[in-house]
Amino acid sequence: MAEFAEMSKEELEQAKEAADNEYEELKSRNLSLDMSRGKPAPSQVDHANGMLKEMTEYHTKAGMDVRNYGVLDGIPEMKELFSELLDINADNLIVGGNASLNLMFDAMMRLFVFGAMGEKPWGQLEKVKFLCPSPGYDRHFTICETLGVEMIPVPMTKEGPDMDVVEELSGSDESIKGIWCVPKYSNPQGICYSDKTVDRLASMKTAANDFRIFWDNAYGVHPVFEDVKVKNILDACEEAGTKNRAYYFFSTSKITFPGAGVSLIASSHENIKEIKKIMGAQTIGYDKVNQLRHVQFFKNAEGLRAHMQVLAGCMKPKFETVLKYLEKELTGTGLAVWEEPKGGYFVSVDVYPGCAKEVVRLAKEAGVVLTGAGATYPYKKDPKDSNLRIAPTYPTVEELEQAMELFCVCVKKAGIQKLLEQTDL
């Protein structure tokens, strides 16, 4: 297909007419699809329904009744499973509830109220800033915005955040207190951090003594096409002499049930001790029944990995459908570029600059709800109005085919219109 930017005005007007006609035909189908969030499909969560069978054993190996009070940091069996799965020392992790997001917010709040390792609480500081690799996860940005943390976008590269920018900023400004990281199959681009990136994050000089890496390994066991190995940030920090720098987060929300998952926060021994001390005032312990239920279902890390292969089989045709339509309809147009993730939950598409909001509007008008334009940037301000996040996991393949057909037409329609406007300048 010819690149639209090279077309004459007459050719663009002809292309616009064709796109308009195609759009109106698709609009007449009265579609009703929501692709705005990365949710597992019902057919996907069904694979974990065996976990809901009646429990006949309520005791840990040590004899503790999980139906009763006790155990602040998680039952030993759940900690052992996570330890084996993620290669983290069981003594260095705390098991939480159904959402790692809750643990992230709590971690941030503790820093604001109590500080860390004797440093001044962030809530007493005039300014707190965070580095935000962008495009990134909108809920990370929401935490910052809620707490009044100033967000500084950092460009992403094929190996993770641009470390030249990260090192320069974090090393020169004491008010920069941390960075958000989704290190494996990042949200939304599906980028996996290189070993070099991980090592630089661990070893870099920071102006703030209490600089913290919020390491959200949400998709750490979510391969679709290829399982990529990413270096453990906790190991890297230990090697670099910055063992207190990183908080590591993980959950089973997209492994079993988003409504009944199990999460964790892991860090150095010193950080975990500090966290547990404050947690002791907050809770007597998270849902131990659910923890034991997970252990009984998976038995061990190998059982969980086998389950993830089943889920990968569910998701692969959906990702293939998205990539097929992008390749077929938009290759060579100059109207879009996209990432081909090896795993995770999203496909990131950069449409023609200045067109993302219009694509979302057009799609919604025709019955398909996309993630809002700008959602992947701090303050919802995409400087190029270009990035869009496609969430293929929830719809069926048949629904995805309809949605992607419409999506590609919307990209063409918006892009051609923008080019026509530019020819008139």
Automatic annotation (TrEMBL):
Main enzyme class: transferase
EC number: 2.6.1.1
Source species, domain of life: Bacteria
Pfam families xrefs: Asp_aminotransf
Signal peptide: none
Record SUPFAM superfamilies: PLP-dependent transferases (SSF53383)
The keyword Transferase belongs to this UniProt entry's keyword annotation: yes
Compositionally biased region (Basic and acidic residues): 1-28
GO molecular function ontology, one term from the record: L-aspartate:2-oxoglutarate aminotransferase activity
Cross-referenced InterPro entries: AspAT_Ic, PyrdxlP-dep_Trfase, PyrdxlP-dep_Trfase_major, PyrdxlP-dep_Trfase_small
Stretches for region Disordered: 1-46
UniProt keyword annotations, A-Z: Aminotransferase, Transferase
Protein name per Swiss-Prot or TrEMBL: Aspartate transaminase
Protein source organism: Anaerostipes rhamnosivorans
